[in-house]
């Protein structure tokens, strides 16, 4: 398998105007980049999973920056101006939400929980609300409405997508950007690096917490998801 060493993800110029190359690398990070490691082969697995997710979303009417796969580590994407928000949808309470609210991990709320975080590492990406986002000029009111609607629609598409391979979509983090026409596109990636994915039958965590919580080989965990997706495609 091709190895993709470097930072977690790199955006490179393309020969085509309005397009970029997104290269996934073997860098693993946690705790706002405090914890780092190189995991050989991780970038290729993340690329393969993210492509399959983008393709499913496009099939269901979600506009994304994804254009096509280039190789094991790279994909061609529309160039976008990223919006400085990390958008999180939670189907099960875990991670920072459990700590903030004193709720036990694994609690399932009656409806998905939607959150937005100001993407600014200097102040540790704080949780904000839509009024804060407007005051900071991060996005317009119309964009914030669309981001929420798209995030919840993405959740409704991906829950059964992962359930079909016996994976519970616990939560996920996404980002949006504006293309040259000012249109809002889902960008960045959707992968185990940006999601919590638990095995429905065993409860095994097959996601970023494998690295951040030292639960074992993170690439091996991600490969389990990829193998299930590939197996589903062949059936």
Describe what you observe in this structure:
The protein has 235 residues and is of the alpha+beta class. The protein is built from six helices and 13 strands. Strands 7, 8, 9, 10, 11, 12 and 13 form a seven-stranded antiparallel sheet that branches. Helix 1 (42-59) crosses helix 6.
Primary descriptors:
single chain; 28% strand; four-stranded antiparallel β-sheet; 13 strands; seven-stranded antiparallel β-sheet; 235 residues
Structure summarized in a few sentences:
Strands 7, 8, 9, 10, 11, 12 and 13 form a seven-stranded antiparallel β-sheet that branches. A four-stranded antiparallel β-sheet has the order 1-2-6-5.
Which SSEs are present, and which pair or pack?
Elements: E1 9-13, E2 19-24, E3 27-30, E4 35-38, H1 42-59, E5 66-69, E6 74-78, E7 81-82, E8 85-90, H2 95-101, E9 113-118, E10 127-128, H3 130-135, H4 141-163, E11 167-178, E12 184-187, E13 195-199, H5 209-212, H6 218-234
Antiparallel strand pairs: 1-2, 2-6, 3-4, 5-6, 7-11, 8-9, 8-11, 9-10, 11-12, 11-13
Helix pairs in contact: 1-6
